[in-house]
Amino acid sequence: MSRIHTRDVLCRKTILTAAEAGCPCCDAVLETANHLFFGCPFAVQFWRSIGVSPNEAVVGSLHRLDVSPAVGDASPASFVLLCCWRLWKRRNAVVFREDPQSLVATLKACRDEAVLWRARLKVADRSHIDVWLSVLRNRGEIV
């Protein structure tokens, strides 16, 4: 997935050196899209907090990520995209503002984004976002 400008891609394009290619969130390993969304300790904590276990998830197969235990049939693919979007935004906050948002702040940002998405939907489809909000609210407050 070279479309996502994680540090491994920036390294391949010689924008960063190998020494600079570690994950900005955990600094443990090379930052790849898979690491950012599913392997980074923060990402693992995020997914677990909303009741999702992304075991061996791959960015190229997001459509296969099973979020049904969390959201049932309430537009699960869009829910995954929302979550990945907020993980990406959190990563950028770390990189560009040195702001490592907490799990609670990231979950709140997901809820806020979901509310914006909800406003753009037909009234009949808004109940899906209500399910997401419930999951994000209930799980996020436990952590």
From TrEMBL:
<dbReference type="Pfam" id="PF13966">
    <property type="entry name" value="zf-RVT"/>
</dbReference>
<feature type="domain" description="Reverse transcriptase zinc-binding">
    <location>
        <begin position="2"/>
        <end position="47"/>
    </location>
</feature>
<protein>
    <recommendedName>
        <fullName>Reverse transcriptase zinc-binding domain-containing protein</fullName>
    </recommendedName>
</protein>
<dbReference type="InterPro" id="IPR026960">
    <property type="entry name" value="RVT-Znf"/>
</dbReference>
